[in-house]
């Protein structure tokens, strides 16, 4: 059993202070977050209602109704500096827009992050960018931008574009990613550089709500479909089912296998290499 929450909180008119195991989340993107490197969710995570806690000391100082600054230190394994992280973040509201600037260091790797959110023509829009500074001049930016819109009481949709400069543009180069610090320590897991996500829900009845999402790898043409449906059996009781289905060119056995090969096959596409996964869930809230 993992102990997710165990912290104390002290509050005054000037600040809130949290110490202990607690959730820490960064970024504003719906699907792929460039700045959420502490305990990120991957796009195929099944349980995303509660984020796993980390051991941290966090100070939050309100500056107004919708503005604040935050300083957080996250203790790594054995509280060693090389395994720990810390960040300063400021949230501000101006010109009907939410801004957030983050200065973060994790495992001695600096990251500069920027979030922007505002409403445009009834749609919610967001931009999230991060610039990671590596020791060996392997600096890389990442960016996600998107919009969501409720067409009526039953229909909701969103679109999100993601740019990952740490990735590769051709499938034959994907295995090079396994040698990069961005993939070993930086929380990056997508192989290519350009992605587009489309998703939405349609409420058949207030108790029966299907959801569909597709992530397209623009570089190699593969994509992964994520349909699901949620049924509210009774008050606080839910039954769900869904799948992750990868579509694209399948991996092929390597023509020549060297002793130092990372993987024993050639990747022809990213999502074509993903196995299909089907799941059900039963949830009771109390």
Q: What this model shows, in words?
A:
This protein is mainly β. Helices cover 1% and strands 50% of the residues. The protein has 1 helix and 18 strands. The chain has one helix spanning 181-184; strands spanning 6-11, 16-22, 54-62, 68-74, 85-94, 97-106, 109-120, 123-132, 140-150, 155-164, 194-202, 208-217, 223-225, 228-234, 237-247, 252-253, 265-266, 277-284. The strands form 2 sheets. It has a 16-stranded antiparallel β-sheet that branches. It has a two-stranded antiparallel sheet with strand order 16-17. The longest helix has 4 residues, at 181-184.
Strand content: over 45%
Structural class: mainly beta
Report the order of strands and helices: EEEEEEEEEEHEEEEEEEE
Pick out the low-confidence regions. Answer: none
The tally of strands reads: 18
Mass-distribution shape: globular
Q: Considering DSSP H and I runs of 4 or more, what fraction of the residues is helical? A: under 10%
Distance between the termini: 19 Å
Number of helices: 1
Radius of gyration (CA) equals 21 Å
